[in-house]
Amino acid sequence: MYVLQQRLGHNLRRYREAQGLSQEKFADQLGWHRTYVGGIERGTRNLSLQALEDLAGKLGVDPLVLLRPSSD
């Protein structure tokens, strides 16, 4: 597995949960399937830069924040 994909997935889950969103609700907001969002969070999906920007925009964070190592 790739480090950035894992890091993105971990950070995505943290931010999504902090906003009280289920995978399903978040996926609906993006117009994506829940299993696709689950794959991103597990680090098994490879995203385009556009998709990364979409995720970050829905969470209200800078896309680079999702790629940084987390402190937990």
From TrEMBL:
CDD domains: HTH_XRE (cd00093). Residues 12-66 form the HTH cro/C1-type domain. The keyword Heme does not apply. InterPro entries: Cro/C1-type_HTH, Lambda_DNA-bd_dom_sf, TransReg_Diox_bact_type. It comes from the Bacteria. GO terms for cellular component: cytosol. Keywords: DNA-binding, Transcription, Transcription regulation. GO terms for molecular function: DNA binding; DNA-binding transcription factor activity. This is Transcriptional regulator.
